[in-house]
Design goal:
Length: 438
């Protein structure tokens, strides 16, 4: 396919099931969905495909600047596009840390020049993620990167006074603090979920209460100062209960769950395979069930990947030495299909909400409020739910391969993606960087 035919003119997407409902045509011109035209320069047969709005990930580690051996903005957004994403929020634990206007503007610019997805940088809450004093939150918010989400993710903002000040600060520009809820004192040396299994395996435990106690503290702080709080990667049944209670009180709290916490359990740690080592750790089947119910009933607002690339040497070692984290952008939609759609807990319109419009709303990202509507930006993912595959390294398009799903059968497949009317994926293949760059 030539550059011109892929990226210019009028595109007709014929017969897609809109949000999993009735089949209809979609027309794209000049980056937006438009009314039907007389003729199309490109017609894409979408019979049997579900049309979803481009997915939005509120929790991605792109690793650039500083850790380009793990991922770059280009490779990470290629991974995102292949998974059906058109926007990602890039976590702040880079080197240098995203704690100044200069660094967040650099990351946003790298995203624009790659073109595969909109990159919205997340700003650090504290200087250098050290948890000692507040970063230049206002300067990042008013920078060209227009940062609205602040997080020390990877680290918990453990000091309650710093957390209070950060929450107060973000209210001045409608921002949100995204907390990695992990009491550091309760998790010193932690290697896996604390319980009977960790005791038997001789691995230091990461107790559920270390997450739940921070969430309980922070929802009360958010209530006290009237701020928005977002809870990253909720992983326990008790956390779902705390968030449910906070929402019932009218506290402005939102929460995310990762695909891996919706599908996998701590039993995988029995293998001592570091691909299953992640923070927060995989929990119990009872936790998985509670997280699924919480996502289905709206207590948990969104699915976010926590895509955490690591080079082979950080994972091909003993469990105790291995880095925490899993890549997830390429597999997220398939895992959500398996855990939530195939089980009848969500339909495709719900998936569009929890993986696109709601994360965009939490992150104050424009262009996703009215999915697939005429006049809206043409962020479009066509997904084939009937396709299946044994997930393989050829399905990974980032720089790292630390996926927990390699060799596992996963349902569904992303077939076509448009980011602001420009194709990034066609016929289940990523377009080349020179075809995608603006
Ligand atoms: Zn985290």
């Amino acid at each position: 396919m030539t550059h011109d035919s892929a990226q210019h003119g009028v595109t007709l997407v014929r017969g897609a099931a809109l949000l999993g409902g009735g089949a209809a045509d979609l027309w794209i011109r000049d980056g937006v969905f438009v009314e039907p035209a007389d003729r199309a320069d490109l017609t894409v047969d979408a019979a049997g495909l579900v049309a979803l709005p481009g997915l939005v990930d509120l929790h991605t580690h792109l690793r650039e600047p500083g850790y380009e051996q793990s991922e770059t903005v280009l490779t990470g957004t290629r991974a995102a596009a292949s998974g059906g994403y058109t926007a990602v929020f890039a976590m702040a634990n880079t080197l240098p840390v995203q704690d100044t206007a200069g660094v967040v503007e650099q990351v946003a610019a790298l995203g624009r020049s790659a073109g595969y997805a909109t990159v919205r940088p997340i700003g650090a809450v504290t200087v250098g993620l050290k948890g000692e004093r507040l970063a230049e939150i206002g300067a990042m918010a008013s920078s060209r990167a227009r940062v609205r989400v602040f997080s020390d993710d990877g680290m918990c903002v453990a000091d309650p006074l710093l957390m209070r000040r950060a929450l107060e600060y973000v209210t001045t520009f409608d921002g949100v603090v995204a907390q990695h809820a992990q009491d550091p004192r309760l998790t010193v040396g932690a290697q896996m979920n604390e319980g009977e299994r960790s005791a038997r395996l001789g691995l230091a435990g990461w107790p559920a209460v270390a997450e739940e106690s921070i969430i309980a503290r922070d929802v009360l702080l958010a209530e006290h100062v009237g701020a928005r709080l977002h809870v990253c990667h909720v992983s326990t049944a008790g956390s779902v209960d705390v968030v449910r209670w906070a929402k019932s009180r009218g506290i402005q709290v939102t929460a995310e769950v990762t695909p891996h916490h919706l599908l996998l359990t701590e039993a995988l740690a029995e293998s001592y395979d570091p691909r299953y080592k992640v923070n927060p750790p995989l929990r119990t089947q009872e936790d998985v069930e509670a997280l699924r119910r919480g996502l289905a009933d709206g207590t948990i607002d969104i699915v976010a990947t926590d895509h955490a690339p690591h080079p082979a040497e950080a994972k091909e070692c003993a469990w105790g030495e291995a880095a925490n984290g899993m890549v997830g952008l390429e597999s997220a939609l398939a895992v959500v299909q398996q855990a939530m759609v195939a089980t009848g807990l969500l339909d495709w319109a719900d998936v569009a909400r929890v993986m696109s419009s709601r994360p965009a709303e939490i992150g104050r990202l424009d262009g996703y409020a009215d999915p697939l509507a005429v006049g809206a930006p043409a962020h479009l993912t066509l997904h084939d739910p009937a396709a299946g595959r044994t997930f393989a390294t050829t399905d990974l398009h980032g720089r790292s391969a630390n996926s927990p799903y390699l060799g596992i059968e996963l349902p569904g497949r992303v077939v076509h993606v448009w980011h602001a009317g420009r194709r990034t994926v066609a016929d289940a293949a990523l377009l080349a960087p020179e075809e995608v760059a603006p």
